[in-house]
């Protein structure tokens, strides 16, 4: 997986890649930082290793693999790029902005001119630079550039200054170098790197020259009879077992591990028991180990063997930097491991005072500076059956320990504290990060001192970087989120303004899903609210119930024929009556807007003279209001008479009308019946489409009498005996007034007529609504819609009507519907019984719920209309599907038996819920 | 302009109800949410700035929390702004006066039919029936529902003690490190004075500075309980503490205090559902604080309290009202009493009837059909 893109330099390194697989990648969850860190640590590792190896004067081959391994290690992180260097560069590239610009570039500038990328290098992490800074100062690099210019990384020879080191440092360099693109254009990248290497290598080799670091040559001869295995630090009972041990897996593993080099510890610096080759993560753990039986055993053994026993003072090991194990790998040399170890140990311990101080610092660090343990609550005690605590489980870090000490340590530990910070208290200060000034001082110190202090630096680095990792993660998250939202906004904006920046907000483009409560308009420019689903349903329903052209035509024809005929009847009656009344023809009045043929005759009439019997004919009811629905076959006309209409008059009209009709429309046949009890004639055409026109005779006098005298009985007595039914006549007069009111009020109101038509249809379809007379319904609709105070779309208007009914407009106790066409305060809905009112209210509530939950089609008795094509996103289809799937069986309160009388046929749509209950 | 006039017609349209359910089934009632532009929050410049930084402003209170989209938030927000122009809830306007960018849309609510608001359109045919008996009945019912003095004292007692303990914890946490308390506030019916008899439960919201892990909540509960025991040794036997997903309850023989735990806003996004209390719940607790603040400022009229109590009684007795949350009832009562043309508090009988009328007229799902 690591080796995806290797090139020359990488290939050079490829030679060393064996034994590399076991390398922990744990450092690197993701992100460039880790890469950087890994690279950096590798650098240090290799460096250190080299130093250690040098210290022991061991040139044994065994050392190199470890160095090489660590060198190759960082290749793993340069996954994508061509060379490891480039990879590292790429990694840095993205991260470099986060780092302070170090100043060490100058040191290199003069030294290696091959590099085009000094600037890039400079921009590497502050930390890396820190480490780099030390090298050039000490190293007379140029002296070596001459020496090893050709030392390609791949050329691994056994000489002192050859590739193992070269490669190692090369990679280290490369990792540290943000090479950018130039690196690839460098002729042999590896060679160039090697040049650079020289400097470092040189420096590395300086160390051995320090006299104090010379390894102790005294290595007591191995007491062979004890069959002591150096690698595993155990003694065997006899040669047989010793051999077996040597062949055993355990030993092999250890050997391999020793050869492969130290396993870098994940947890910063650690303490190491040199004797047992055990690394402990903290002072407490180390103490525990020293106390432990295993350690004691080894001590005993070593005492027995007369081997030197290192002091119990721990060796501080900075993370991956492990010196002594490397030497342990070099067992095959003349020197024993112990001596090597001791040497390394001494080299580590017996240095300058400064170094000791640092060591102390490190130890201090490891002791976590008596931090308060946190998160005791989250450590769960796991008990066995007897209730004895057998282990602990930290819920924050998801780890377990058996030892109470370990628990204590864990609670003080960094990892735990970080988790605690992350999960419990964001304000917890985890870092004992040195202040800026301290850090600078430390860097200063580092510069003064020598590479032995790598651990220190590295640890600091790691700490900072780990913390940053956390921060970064969070920051990235928000960054990403912000970017996403910006994108969304941009898209949104694009959609809204397809043709470019602002200007006046255009109409919603069709592709854009309509925002839910689309008021849609900025305050100053009202924009039409796009039709909602309710509107679309209402409009569709309206189109469905609106009469067809031919229907309208047929009705128009019979009505106008009847009107003409009646006019002629009126003329005829006037003529017949005229001889008695000096032949004066009264004027005919025609208010209705239809065909003006009559008006021609009107001109001839004289103004004065006794009134005609039939003064005029007017349309009332649905015909006048324009509420005709499809299938309506009955319309109403009112003939106003000069005097109270009598049966005689009715007979005369009925006798004469067929003749006149024959004159008006010779090709049509009409059937005329008189309905005396209704004070009306019924004109019906004979054909496939039976349309009947009710012609009611009435006279304003009937009402005037009523209004003026206050005592209708008295006046009625004076009337001719065969006066037609008074109530019918009054009703006809009221119908006239209603028609006038309707034309004045309702016709002008947006959506009102449409809603009334819809409701008419509803009243016809649903028996519950049957008792609601049309006048009350019209009145109510007009009031409700007008009181909204704003224009309502048809869907909204219909809904508002249902809302009004649902909130108890018709129920007893409500203000009632004051009839504007009557003198006395009269409730237009007074004919309704209490039960009917209740039923209508309940039904309206149910309908309202259906509308509210987007099942208006059930209220309207139609099929649902799919949303318009252009709106069909995933959103809409999903909703529609739900629409259908939840169509039935979910009404918990709608149909509590109140609509039981409804028939199931045509109004089943609205009652689906109830039925399926 | 008709729209403007409509706003004059409904001078205070502080609320509207959206159903979050995108489906249209009738049982969707349970997911109805009420949104209310919250003063202090919806209009603060920070809120607007916050939005531009990719954080969504908390502009609304949602009771049954659901996802709402940006648009809806905007609607609510801008409506609030529109109202701000009229006074009442005056607050600084954004730059640019009434002309807002493309996002700033005017929100014109379409209120459902409300007889009280359209009374002029419906002149009475006959005189209104005498409702004094009805009024008396309502008042009597309210008296029956109100807690007795003893009950009030018991709750007050316990609340005071717990508040004291919590305050002490804030000032001096001592060895208690499971969590840090930022603030303690009383909320809910206790705070609002709308408690019911027989339901001696007071609510307290504890805002933690730390993240509210379940363990921390439990530890806090224990700690409070222990401190209470120290404070009041004679109550040792009767004091109980029950942790739950919202916090914990501390009760003695007479009263219960629900301690609702939440955390500061900044912490909300750091929550991990595995470890901490549910974010929705925490948000609802923060909302509860806003609610009680709003109530204090806007709905202290005593008729409102009476009406709330009556409505809560209804809610308890009728299954159909179950989904109405206390906050919805508060808003409903406030609306029914104060939102009328004369701006005078409506008498209790009219207001009670109006509540039912509003509900019947589809106040709750008023916006559902538009929401597609």
From TrEMBL, chain A:
Domain DZF as annotated: residue spans: 514-908
Pfam families named in the record: DZF_C, DZF_N, zf-C2H2_jaz, zf-met
One CC-aspect GO term: precatalytic spliceosome
InterPro entries referenced in this protein's UniProt entry, alphabetically: DZF_dom, DZF_dom_C, DZF_dom_N, Matrin/U1-like-C_Znf_C2H2, NT_sf, Znf_C2H2_jaz, Znf_C2H2_sf, Znf_C2H2_type
PROSITE patterns: DZF, ZINC_FINGER_C2H2_1
Region (Disordered) residue spans: 247-268, 310-335, 579-613, 862-917
Annotated localization: Cytoplasm; Nucleus
Compositionally biased residues, Basic and acidic residues: 579-610, 895-917
Key words of the record: Cytoplasm, Developmental protein, DNA-binding, Metal-binding, Nucleus, Repeat, RNA-binding, Zinc, Zinc-finger
GO MF entry, a single one: DNA binding
UniProt-listed SUPFAM superfamilies: beta-beta-alpha zinc fingers
Record SMART domains: DZF, ZnF_C2H2, ZnF_U1
Positions with biased composition (Low complexity): 318-335
Protein name: Zinc finger RNA-binding protein
From TrEMBL, chain B:
Domain of life: Eukaryota
Molecular-function annotations in GO: DNA binding; double-stranded RNA binding
Location (main, coarse): nucleus
GO CC list: catalytic step 2 spliceosome
Keyword Cell membrane among record annotations: no
Domain DZF: start-end pairs: 105-372
Family annotation (InterPro entries): DZF_dom (IPR006561), DZF_dom_C (IPR049402), DZF_dom_N (IPR049401), ILF2 (IPR052134), NT_sf (IPR043519)
Short name of any one Pfam family annotated for the protein: DZF_C
Keywords on record: Activator, DNA-binding, Nucleus, Transcription, Transcription regulation
UniProt-listed GO biological process terms: positive regulation of DNA-templated transcription
Nucleus recorded as keyword: yes
Record localization: Nucleus
Name recorded for this polypeptide: DZF domain-containing protein
């Amino acid at each position: 997986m690591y080796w995806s893109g290797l090139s020359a330099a990488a290939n050079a390194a490829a030679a060393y890649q064996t034994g590399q697989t076991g390398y922990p990648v744990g450092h690197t969850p993701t992100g460039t930082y880790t890469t950087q860190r890994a690279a950096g640590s590798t650098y240090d590792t290799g460096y250190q290793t080299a130093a250690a190896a040098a210290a022991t004067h061991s040139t044994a081959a065994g050392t190199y693999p470890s160095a090489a391994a660590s060198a190759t290690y960082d290749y793993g992180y340069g996954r994508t790029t061509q060379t490891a260097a480039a990879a590292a560069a790429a990694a840095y590239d993205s991260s470099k902005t986060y780092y302070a610009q170090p100043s060490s570039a100058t040191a290199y500038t003069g030294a290696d001119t091959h590099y085009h990328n000094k600037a890039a290098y400079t921009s590497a992490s502050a930390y890396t630079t820190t480490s780099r800074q030390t090298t050039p100062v000490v190293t007379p690099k140029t002296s070596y550039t001459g020496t090893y210019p050709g030392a390609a990384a791949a050329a691994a020879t056994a000489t002192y200054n050859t590739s193992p080191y070269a490669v190692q440092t090369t990679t280290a360099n490369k990792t540290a170098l943000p090479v950018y693109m130039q690196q690839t254009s460098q002729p042999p990248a590896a060679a160039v790197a090697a040049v650079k290497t020289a400097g470092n290598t040189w420096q590395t080799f300086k160390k051995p020259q320090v006299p104090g670091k010379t390894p102790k040559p005294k290595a007591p001869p191995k007491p062979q009879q004890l069959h002591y295995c150096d690698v595993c630090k155990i003694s065997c009972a006899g040669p047989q077992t010793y051999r077996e041990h040597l062949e055993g897996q355990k030993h092999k593993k250890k050997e391999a591990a020793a050869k492969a080099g130290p396993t870098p510890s994940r947890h910063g610096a650690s303490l190491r028991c040199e004797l047992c080759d055990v690394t402990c993560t903290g002072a407490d753990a180390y103490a525990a180990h020293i106390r432990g039986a295993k350690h004691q055993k080894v001590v005993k053994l070593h005492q027995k063997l007369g081997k030197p026993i290192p002091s119990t003072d721990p060796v501080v090991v900075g993370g991956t930097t492990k010196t002594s194990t490397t030497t342990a790998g070099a067992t095959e040399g003349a020197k024993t491991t112990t001596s090597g170890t001791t040497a390394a140990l001494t080299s580590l311990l017996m240095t300058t005072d400064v170094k000791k101080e640092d060591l102390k610092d490190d130890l201090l660090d490891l002791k976590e500076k008596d931090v308060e343990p946190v998160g005791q609550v989250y450590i769960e005690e796991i008990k066995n059956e007897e209730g004895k605590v057998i282990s602990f489980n930290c819920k924050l870090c998801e780890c377990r320990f058996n030892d109470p000490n370990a628990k204590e340590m864990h609670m003080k530990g960094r990892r735990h504290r970080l988790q605690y910070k992350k999960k419990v208290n964001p304000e917890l200060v985890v870092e004992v990060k040195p202040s800026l000034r301290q850090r600078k001082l430390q860097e200063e110190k580092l510069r003064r001192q020598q590479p032995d202090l790598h651990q220190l630096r590295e640890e600091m680095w790691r700490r900072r970087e780990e913390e940053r990792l956390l921060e970064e993660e969070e920051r990235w998250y928000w960054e990403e989120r912000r970017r996403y939202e910006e994108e969304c906004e941009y898209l949104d904006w694009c959609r809204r303004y397809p043709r470019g920046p602002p200007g006046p907000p255009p109409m919603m483009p069709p592709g854009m899903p309509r925002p839910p409560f689309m008021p849609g308009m900025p305050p100053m420019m009202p924009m039409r609210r796009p039709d909602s689903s309710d509107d679309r349903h209402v409009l569709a329903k309206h189109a469905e119930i609106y009469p067809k052209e031919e229907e309208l035509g047929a009705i128009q024809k019979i009505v106008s024929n009847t009107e003409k005929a009646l006019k002629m009847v009126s003329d005829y009656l006037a003529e017949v009556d005229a001889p008695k009344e000096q032949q004066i023809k009264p004027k005919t009045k025609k208010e209705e807007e239809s065909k003006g043929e009559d008006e021609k005759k009107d001109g001839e009439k004289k103004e004065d003279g006794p009134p005609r019997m039939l003064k005029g004919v007017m349309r009332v009811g649905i015909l006048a209001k324009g509420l005709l629905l499809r299938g309506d076959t009955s319309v109403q006309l009112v003939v106003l008479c000069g005097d109270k209409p009598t049966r005689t008059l009715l007979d005369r009209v009925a006798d004469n009308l067929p003749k006149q009709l024959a004159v008006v429309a010779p090709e049509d046949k009409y059937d005329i019946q008189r309905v005396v009890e209704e004070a009306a004639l019924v004109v019906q055409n004979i054909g496939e489409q039976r349309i009947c026109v009710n012609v009611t005779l009435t006279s304003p006098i009937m009402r005037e009498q009523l209004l003026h005298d206050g005592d209708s009985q008295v006046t009625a007595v004076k009337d001719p005996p065969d006066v037609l039914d008074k109530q019918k006549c009054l009703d006809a007069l009221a119908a006239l007034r209603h028609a006038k009111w309707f034309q004045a009020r309702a016709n002008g109101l947006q959506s009102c007529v449409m809603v009334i038509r819809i409701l008419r249809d509803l009243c016809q379809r649903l028996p519950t609504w049957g008792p609601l007379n049309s006048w009350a319904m019209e009145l109510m609709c007009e009031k409700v819609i007008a009181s909204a105070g704003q224009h309502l779309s048809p869907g909204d208007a219909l809904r508002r009507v249902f809302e009004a009914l649902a909130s108890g407009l018709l129920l007893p106790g409500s203000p009632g519907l004051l009839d504007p066409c009557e003198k006395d305060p009269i409730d237009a809905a007074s004919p309704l019984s209490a039960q009917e009112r209740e039923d209508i209210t309940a039904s309206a509530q149910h309908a309202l719920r259906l509308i509210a939950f987007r099942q208006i089609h059930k209220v309207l008795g139609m099929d649902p209309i799919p949303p318009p094509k252009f709106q069909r996103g995933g959103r809409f289809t999903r909703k529609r599907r739900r629409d259908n799937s939840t169509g039935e069986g979910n009404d918990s309160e709608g149909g509590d038996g109140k609509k039981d009388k409804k028939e199931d046929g045509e109004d089943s749509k609205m009652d689906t819920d109830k039925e399926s209950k | 302009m008709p729209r403007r006039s409509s706003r004059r017609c409904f001078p205070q349209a502080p609320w509207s109800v959206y159903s979050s359910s995108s489906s249209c089934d009738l049982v969707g009632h349970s997911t109805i949410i009420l949104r209310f532009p919250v003063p202090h929050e919806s209009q603060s410049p920070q809120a607007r700035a916050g939005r531009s930084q990719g954080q969504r402003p908390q502009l609304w209170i949602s009771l049954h929390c659901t996802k709402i989209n940006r648009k809806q938030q905007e609607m609510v927000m801008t409506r609030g702004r529109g109202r701000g122009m009229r006074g009442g809830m005056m607050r600084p306007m954004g730059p640019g006066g009434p002309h807002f960018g493309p996002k700033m849309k005017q929100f014109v609510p379409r209120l459902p039919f409300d007889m009280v608001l359209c009374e002029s359109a419906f002149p009475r045919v006959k005189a209104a029936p005498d409702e004094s008996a009805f009024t008396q009945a309502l008042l009597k019912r309210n008296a029956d529902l109100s807690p007795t003095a003893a009950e009030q004292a018991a709750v007050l007692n316990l609340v005071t003690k717990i508040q004291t303990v919590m305050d002490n914890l804030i000032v001096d946490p001592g060895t208690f490190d499971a969590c840090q308390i930022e603030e303690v506030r009383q909320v809910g019916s206790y705070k609002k004075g709308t408690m019911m008899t027989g339901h001696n439960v007071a609510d307290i919201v504890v805002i933690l500075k730390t993240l509210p892990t379940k363990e921390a909540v439990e530890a806090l509960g224990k700690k409070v309980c222990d401190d209470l025991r120290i404070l009041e040794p004679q109550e040792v036997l009767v004091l109980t503490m029950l942790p739950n997903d919202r916090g914990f309850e501390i009760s003695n023989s007479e009263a219960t205090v629900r301690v609702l735990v939440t955390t500061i806003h900044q912490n909300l996004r750091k929550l991990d559902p595995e470890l901490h209390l549910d974010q929705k719940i925490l948000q609802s607790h923060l909302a509860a604080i806003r609610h009680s603040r709003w109530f204090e400022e806007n709905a202290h009229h005593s008729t409102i309290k009476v009406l709330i109590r009556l409505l809560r009684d209804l809610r308890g007795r009728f299954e159909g009202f179950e989904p109405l949350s206390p906050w919805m009832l508060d808003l409903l009562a406030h609306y029914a009493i104060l939102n009328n043309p004369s701006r005078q508090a409506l008498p209790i009988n009219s207001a009670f009837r109006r509540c039912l009328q509003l509900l019947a007229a589809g106040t709750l799902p008023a916006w559902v059909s538009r929401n597609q």
